[in-house]
Amino acid sequence: EEKSISIDLLFHVEIDTKRLITFERYFANQLNINNSNSKKLIEVYENCLDKFDVGEIQVSNPEFLLIKSYNSYGEYDGYIYQEKKTITKMKSNSNYLKFLEKVILENDKELIFDNKESILELAFNDKRLLSISYGKSECYYDIKIVSLNKSSISFQIIMQTGQLGKEKIININKITYLKIDSIELRALERVLL
To answer: Is 120 left (phi over 0), alpha (psi -120 to 50) or beta?
Structure first.
């Protein structure tokens, strides 16, 4: 049941910037969802037709998609930035998504991002780990950012042993996929940082 309140009845509202951004994004997403008749969750495919990410769209524009990700158990699993040119298929309203919507236990954690630069800045400033893919690579690498500037990042790949590899530098424009705050990355952060 939809409820509404007249804007004339609102006299005073105090809200912090992050919460305001969250509300703005929520209402923008609600308008997009209602206008497009799509569900809140989507499936995002890249190359493999049997493997996909599931999430709620946070930002979608012609260049990239940013989703709040959930695993197959309905658990919050970080945020994923993905360039649209790497996406081969997107699905909404599937039976799987309808079922998953029912089992998701929403985590109160809310990170606010606008683009890949804002994800990189948060990861660098808060000493967070990332999963990335860049160039034409189909591989994902767990990394620790060493330094960051407006055009490039310096990072180390986290090896299976937990050791850090040699430092590499890439242009930010080459990054096609970013994941932050996933279950696996949070576990690595507890052990390595």
So the answer is: alpha
Cα–Cα dist 117/150, whole Å: 8
Q: How far, in whole angstroms, is CA 174 from its chain's centroid?
A: 18
Q: Looking at residue 99, what is its pLDDT? A: 84
Q: What is the pLDDT of residue 4?
A: 45
Burial of 116-150, coded b for 16+ CB within 10 Å and e otherwise, reads beebbebbbeeebbbbbbbeeeeeebbbbbeebee
> 166, 111 in Cβ contact below 8 A?
no
- Spell out, as residue ranges, where the chain has pLDDT lower than 70: 1-39, 48-49, 105-110
3-state SS string for the chain:
CCCCCCHHHCCCCCCCHHHHHHHHHHHHHHHHHHHHCCCCEEEEEECEEEEEEEEEEEEECCCEEEEEEECCCCCEEEEEEEEHHHCCEEEECCHHHHHHHHHCCCCCCCCCCCCHHHHHHHHHHCCCEEEEEECCCCCCEEEEEEEECCCEEEEEEECCCCCEEEEEEEEHHHEEEEEECCHHHHHHHHHHC
Instruction: Say what the pLDDT of residue 46 is.
Output: 87
C-alpha torsion sign, points 133, 135, 139, 141: negative
The pTM assigned to this predicted structure is 0.65
